[in-house]
């Protein structure tokens, strides 16, 4: 299996649908001539590929060591409270998906969070909620 | 050749040998969990690490090739300590608690984890087990998966993909949340699983086992209103002795019959009888297809794992599959018609149980096309459980014979249990029926053996009949692709499991190549020592056609002994 091509295809599909639907996995299995379980597993290996529909905005809060000791947990809790969803869940109006994730690569500026492709550093509880409120 | 030293033993092995293989040759056992002969090297469990002189780090012996002059220590103090630590961590991901303890585990008698714990001398478990809380996958008619017992060694994944060419399993996620799962977490019963059960043989823990039906059989046996008959598949008789400590390859036909009688079955019959019947029906079908320019090659239909494989993967070839039911299903059909009528037994009171080397037979028994035939299909392992539960000392029982009529069989039926056997049995009969002359040599050695793909040809009445045999679904795929590329055959035997039914997913564990060879030898020994070695010469087969079925391939036969298949998609 050509892994570069494979990942490019997966990105294209996710960019189109917001996630990688079942039917597209079947197509990829045929294209790359591998069992569909293997395609599914490879997609599931990468935490930023989705096999279920997500919200319009994906909120990722880092909880790796640096962010954790800077109290990322309180940010996660306040977002959970505000949106009424748990880690990995999507709001009923399909607007937000919350994910507590591993390192986002800004360990010196924690706690950090991302909303879709936008990175926010030195986040506080209020700041996190303001960012969310600004999402339209 | 490469010379090296392992644990002070000087040995010489071929280039390209791994340290693990070389150690085995030097009679040194290195513990492994993710390694399995026949599968690709994964190197994930690290239990097989060894110390190599001049190397800083320990190396996994399964994935490290020998080199000239290498000095290896497989059980040095460092290795032993590291191994214990690794094992503790592996065990921590294998949920051992009051709900999932060893006593109730399917592998309580032959668990790889327990064996390794004893071998490396684990004395403490410092890491508390993770409570993973996954749901048990009960979506399949044949196979159960208990993910909490899984150590993600990946043997099931590789077995399914590399040996069977199916690939229903995958890992998902990373790190401690890594799980083995199926496409979209649908469950084994909702994907293209063939139910072959090879994953069960690959699993070192109790994470995979068959769906148990022996409790239902106990209930039937204790129900005074039920007349319970049992049939035993050819491959069970050369394996049933193993769980009782006998050497692989021990033939225990008579003792198995005696044990079944003691368990309380009203009649002990033999699937071999309907294996002979299969030859009559399938042989007739082959002759008809050849004479009437029907669809060729004809594919055998005995192996339900193979049937589900072709239904999912190659539906365009379904016309090639013989319409004959498998011997298990033919038996059920004959028992519930002929036998019930002969003995005035109400069909509703008759319970047909089968003992099979197979997990796919469980699915076959509930197929819509023929779900009336067989009530419960048990694996050889389940039968061994029942015998133990009844306290029967099977190895010391006197041999007993099968009950009459549905228990009489030829050696041609016995060899159904081995790859190439159905082909050989069919050729013995087809040759003699077509030519009207007796075969000089009835041993077709070129279709025998553990090799995954075998080909040969037989000249019958100046016509060269080209035959092929595939065992293991990966090999079935290779053969079908060859056909797609224009290769021509007349008759092909397909078996889902490597080695045929002797290596079936319902057979006792362990099931190494060496053990399969011994079972196979035992099967051919049974045949060799039988007087009756051709299906069409079985007097009871003649009798059932005279009294009940009419002609092979006739109307009654078609009604009872034949079926159809369906495209399942992926």
Explained architecture:
The complex is a heterodimer of chains A (136) and B (570). Helix content of chain A is 46%, strand content 13%. Chain A has 136 residues and is an alpha+beta fold. Chain A has 2 domains: 3-45, no CATH class; 57-133, 3-Layer(aba) Sandwich (Glutaredoxin), CATH 3.40.30.10. In chain A, helix 2 (22-32) crosses helix 3 (36-45). The longest helix of chain A has 15 residues, at 3-17. The radius of gyration of chain A is 16 Å and the shape is elongated. The mean pLDDT of chain A is 94. Chain B is globular, with a radius of gyration of 25 Å. In chain B, the strands form 5 sheets. A 5-stranded mixed beta sheet of chain B has the order 2-1-5-3-4, sandwiched between helices. A 4-stranded parallel beta sheet of chain B has the order 11-10-13-14, sandwiched between helices. In chain B, strands 12-17-16-15 form a 4-stranded mixed beta sheet. In chain B, helix 8 (271-291) packs across helix 10 and helix 8 crosses helix 14 (421-435). Chain B has 570 residues and is α/β, with parallel strands linked by helices. Chain B has 3 domains: 2-92, Ubiquitin-like (UB roll) (Roll), CATH 3.10.20.740; 125-210, Alpha-Beta Plaits (2-Layer Sandwich), CATH 3.30.70; 215-561, Rossmann fold (3-Layer(aba) Sandwich), CATH 3.40.50.1780. The model of chain B has no long low-confidence stretch (mean pLDDT 95). Chain A binds chain B through residues 22, 25-26, 29, 34-38, 40-42, 44-45, 47, 51, and chain B through 161, 166-174, 181-184, 191, 570.
